[in-house]
Recover the amino acids of this structure.
C-alpha cells in the first residue's frame, strides 16, 4: 500500500517544519502540503479548498497512463487548482528556501512555479532514518506493482501438480522473467 497524507489545513511553513513526522515514518507513506484552491465542482460559483493528496494521486494516475509507474509523480501541473494557501496577510508562503526546508523534512510541496502554474514539487516518502531502498513514491509504486501482479499472475499455480519434468517451474520462471523484462525495458528496475 501507499498512504498519501495531507497536512492540516491552515498550517504555515513554520508550523509544517515543527510537525513531528517521526510517528508517521514509513517507506509506504507520503505527506503533501499545502491545500489547493480551485473552483467548486458542483457548478456553483465560488472557490473551494482541496486537500493536496488529490493532486498527488491524480499525478500518479497521469504518469501511469502516459509514461509508466516508474515515473515519479513530480513536476506535474495541477490542472484544476489556481492557488495554494497563503500567509494571513495574503503573501506567498512557499519561497525557494521554504520549499528546500520542507523537502529536507520529506514533505512534498505543491507550489506555484513562475510561468508554469501550480506543480507538484517532490515525490519523497516519509522513509525512516537509515532506509536506503525505498525513498521515493515511484519506487514504492513499482514494488507494489510487482508484488500484486505476481500474486494475481501466479494465482493459477497454487494447486497445480508439480510434474517430474519441471514444466510448472519453467512456466512460472518464464512468466516472471517476461514480466520483469517488460519493466526493465521501461526503466522501472533501474
Amino acid at each position: 500500500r501507499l498512504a498519501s497524507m495531507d497536512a492540516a489545513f491552515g498550517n504555515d511553513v513554520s508550523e509544517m517544519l515543527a510537525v513531528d513526522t517521526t510517528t508517521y515514518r514509513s517507506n509506504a507513506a507520503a505527506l503533501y502540503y499545502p491545500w489547493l484552491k480551485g473552483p467548486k465542482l458542483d457548478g456553483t460559483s465560488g472557490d473551494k479548498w482541496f486537500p493536496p493528496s488529490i493532486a498527488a494521486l491524480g499525478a500518479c494516475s497521469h504518469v501511469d497512463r502516459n509514461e509508466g509507474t516508474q515515473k515519479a509523480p513530480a513536476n506535474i501541473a495541477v490542472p484544476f487548482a489556481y492557488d495554494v494557501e497563503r500567509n494571513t496577510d495574503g503573501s506567498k508562503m512557499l519561497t525557494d528556501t521554504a520549499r528546500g526546508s520542507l523537502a529536507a523534512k520529506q514533505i512534498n510541496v505543491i507550489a506555484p512555479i513562475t510561468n508554469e502554474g501550480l506543480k507538484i514539487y517532490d515525490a519523497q516518502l516519509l522513509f525512516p532514518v537509515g532506509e536506503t531502498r525505498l525513498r521515493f513514491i515511484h519506487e514504492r509504486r513499482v514494488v507494489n506493482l510487482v508484488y500484486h501482479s505476481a500474486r494475481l499472475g501466479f494465482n493459477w499455480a497454487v494447486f497445480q501438480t508439480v510434474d517430474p519434468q519441471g514444466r510448472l517451474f519453467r512456466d512460472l520462471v518464464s512468466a516472471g522473467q517476461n514480466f520483469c523484462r517488460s519493466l526493465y525495458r521501461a526503466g522501472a528496475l533501474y
